[in-house]
């Protein structure tokens, strides 16, 4: 579900025509719908309500401070994965005591900053990291809470290998066998209270089953630890809830909850969730203008002013985003958002950017309606891992970001300038 729809042939975000926004802010432009962000956040909060969970939105999926403010004001907390994300969470008014911090490579500075801020839970990925946190906590006179990131050795075969994190061979967490020894070694640490377990099995996970498997394994471990007098109070089940890149293809929050809530509701555990994509993905589009239409060899190309520098996912993972013009015939049926959707009067094209790389494409082999120079094209479901993974490669300034709220919209990050791409090189 989202608030992007065609009305009389024009794409609207909530009450605003996307073409009107673009007329003011130019292209490429990331455009987000606040109603969609809040809808998905509330759907998760409602679905898991019985557990009264702390919902820590995963900042890495869409990190704009203004969006964090919006979510924070709705009661959402944050999952951070770097010092930079922690700084954003705090600037956005996030409650430090509810922030969770993950990541295999936290530096001393990042750990110290998080100790100073007084964050809720450090999600710890290795023995060496725990020892380092303990040392820094002693120095700072702090007594933080930590959760051990468990690697439950489950996975979803549909998850891309780059983002499947719950398998034994990945760099993430500690396997179940080692977890018990971990508590033996650090469960009574004088400086750090080790009283949580953290899971994040991959992203996205397209069904509840892998969560169920991982949680069952974890509950067994928690029982064993109890036998050794180690009390686990917090269980963070991570993120990875899928988003609808193709209409109707992914489970809703309620479907995940229906399988997960019964497992946890009588355990007395404080539950944390770290959803990113399910909140942000369909809340954002990337609007881009067609520069040229070109027939080359056996293929037709639509060359647009967005590129892999703006949306890296197709190049990096071969991900499929639905791409379509912002304007269609007023009486035409709105397209069904499926990567394989075929326009009735269409031709097959690749939608590509202007970067000097063969991997610079946004969509391949799509049957689109006739496209001309100057047309506005929309890449849908671009809110998650879109802007945040953008770069200045080829010295391309990053895109503008716009937030729509009902009939209003505002720029929430200005378009970068050429000067922005080299400013840090001049003041050295
Ligand atoms: N928690 C942890 C510890 C994570 O590592 C992640 C994502 C999340 C939560 C949020 O996962 P989500 O709910 O958004 O699926 N760049 C890739 C995704 C990488 C995800 C990394 N970790 C993509 O574009 O698909």
CATH topology of the largest domain: Lyase, Ornithine Decarboxylase, Chain A, domain 1
Mean model confidence by pLDDT? 95
Which overall shape is indicated by the principal axes computed on the Cα atoms? globular
> Which quaternary structure do these chains form?
single chain
**Radius of gyration computed on alpha carbons:** 23 Å
Straight-line distance between termini: 48 Å
The total tally of domains equals 2
**Number of DSSP-assigned strands:** 21
Structural class: alpha/beta
β-strand amount? 15-25%
Supply the CATH architecture of the largest domain. Answer: Beta Barrel
Put simply, the count of helices is: 12
Question: What bound compounds does this protein have?
Answer: ligand LLP
Just give the CATH class of the largest domain.
Mainly Beta
The CATH superfamily name of the largest domain is Lyase, Ornithine Decarboxylase, Chain A, domain 1
**Major sheet:** 9 strands, mixed
Q: What percentage of residues falls in helices of 4 or more residues?
A: 25-40%
Taking pLDDT < 50 over at least 5 consecutive residues as the criterion, the unreliable ranges are none
